[in-house]
Amino acid sequence: MARTPMILHLLLVTLFILSSKTASSSASSDVDAFLGCLSAAIPPSLIKTPATNSYSELLMSSVRNLRYVLPGTTRPFVIVAATEPAHVQTTVVCGRRHSVRIRTRSGGHDYEGLSYASVDPHEHFAVLDLGELRAIHIDASRAEAWVGSGATLGELYYAAAAANQTFGFPAGNCPTVGVGGHLSGGGFGALSRKYGLSADNVLDAVVVDAEGRLLNRSTMGKDLFWAIRGGGGESFGVVLSWKVRLVAVPETVTVFSIRRSRNQSAVDLITKWQAIAPALPRDLYLRVLVQNQQAAFVALFLGRCDRLVDTMRAHFPDLGMAERDCQEMSWVKSTVFFFFNTANIPNEVLLNRSNADYFLKVKSDHVQEPMPRQAWESLWSKWLEKPEAALVMLDPYGGVMGSISPSATPFPHRNYLYQLQFFSFWFENGTAALEKRMSWVRGVYEDLTPYVSKNPRAVYVNYRDLDLGTNELEGGVTSYAKARVWGEKYFKGNFKRLAAVKSKVDPFDFFRNEQSIPPLPAKKW
C-alpha cells in the first residue's frame, strides 16, 4: 500500500516534466516561426538577436535604469529596429500569428523598464525599438508638428525653436525622454500650468493596432484617440507618430535657481511654497528640488526679469528673489538650463540621446492640502539627512491644469496642488546597495501616507511603480479585478473607460505587460 502514493507521485512528476518540455518546445517553435515571419518582410540588418553583434549595443542604447539589465533579467529574444511603419505592422502581425508578445520602446525612460524587460523569467517577448522613427516635420504657418514616437523631447524642442524662436511645446524637463512614451502617459512639464499637458496638445496620431492596421484620428475613432493620450503606453497599439500643437512663448524668458539650506529656512519656505506655487500666475512655474541638504527653488517665467521680480515680491517675498537671481534667455535655452542646471552649453546638447548610467527606483504622490511644517521637518530629519538620500522633487499644478476636466484625457490628476517624487539613484552594484536604496525610497513613501492623496493614492502613470501591483491572467487575458489595484491609482475613474476601450480595440489582450490596461469583462459594460 505504501508504494501507491510513491508511484502516483512519480507519475505526476513525469507528466509535469513532459508537459514542461512540450511547452518549452512549443515556445521554441513559436519563436522560430516568428523570426521566420519577420525575416520574410523586414531586412535582416534590422532584426537583432542575442547572436547578433549589435544586439547588446542596441538594447543598452535606451536603457535608463541599470536595475533591468542585471544578471537574471529577462531580456527580449529579438529586437526589431523599425525604420518604417511597415516594419511595425509586420512585427505586430507576426506576433499575433505566432503568439509572441511585443514591447515597444521609444526613449526607454519607463522607471520600471517595462519597454525592454520583463519581470517574468519565462516570458519570450520581442522589442519594437522606435528610435529610428524620429522624423520631425514643422508646419510653421499652422504652428503644428508631426513628430515620430522615437524622437526625444530635446529633439522636438530644438526643431521647434529652429523653425521659430517663439515656438515651444509643453512637455517634460528631461530631454532624452522619448516622445512616444511621454505623450502616451500625459506629459507634464514647465509649460503645463500655461498650456496643459502634452496630451492636451495632441491633434492627431498614427497607430498600428492589434490587427496590424495603420490608423489615424479619423479612422481609429474618438475612444481610441482619447485612450492613447494619457492611458499609458503599450496597451492599445503602437503609436508611430503624433501631430501636436506648438504653443507661443516669448522671445525672451527668465529663469532662476535659488538654493536654501535647512538653516536658511528651507523647511519654512517649502511649507509656504505648497499653497503659493499652484496659485501663481500661469506664466510662472516654480518647482522645488531637495538634494544634498538643500532646497533649490527653480523657476521659468514667460517674460522678462523686471516683471518676474515684481511677481515674486507680490506672491512669495519670503524667498528673497531679486534681480541678481535672474537669467534671461530664449525658451529653448531654458530647457537646457532646467535639465543641466546651466545655460552655458550649446543648445545642441538637446540632441544628445546618450543613456544614463545608474540604478534607479522612484515613487510618487499627489498632494491635495499643504503638508504641515512638522511633516517636512520630520521628513528632513528622518530621511533627507541619510547618506542614501537622493532627490525629492515637487512640481506645482494649478493654472490651466485645474480648468481642464479630469476626464478630458485619461490623466485624471488635474485638481491637486502638486505632484511629489522621491528618487533613489545609485551607482554601485550589489544586493546591499539595492536593498539600502530601495528601503530609503519605500520608507519615505510609507511615512508620508497621512499627508498625501487617498482613496486612491494617486500616481502619474509616467512614473511607473510596480510596488503598486502587477497584472495577473484570468481566462487567458489580464484580470480586470486585479488590475484595478494599481489602475485606479494611475487613472482613478478613467480606468474603467480605458478598459472598455481595450475591449473594443484589443479584446484578446495582445498588447500587455505588467501594468497594461486589461479588457473590461462583458458583465461590467
Automatic annotation (TrEMBL):
InterPro entries: BBE, FAD-bd_PCMH, FAD-bd_PCMH-like_sf, FAD-bd_PCMH_sub1, FAD-bd_PCMH_sub2, Oxid_FAD_bind_N. This is FAD-binding PCMH-type domain-containing protein. Residues 1-27 form the signal peptide. Belongs to the oxygen-dependent FAD-linked oxidoreductase family. It comes from Setaria italica. GO terms for molecular function: FAD binding; oxidoreductase activity. The gene is LOC101771937. Residues 72-249 form the FAD-binding PCMH-type domain. PROSITE patterns: FAD_PCMH (PS51387). Its cofactor is FAD. It comes from the Eukaryota. It holds the Pfam family BBE. Keywords: FAD, Flavoprotein, Glycoprotein, Signal.
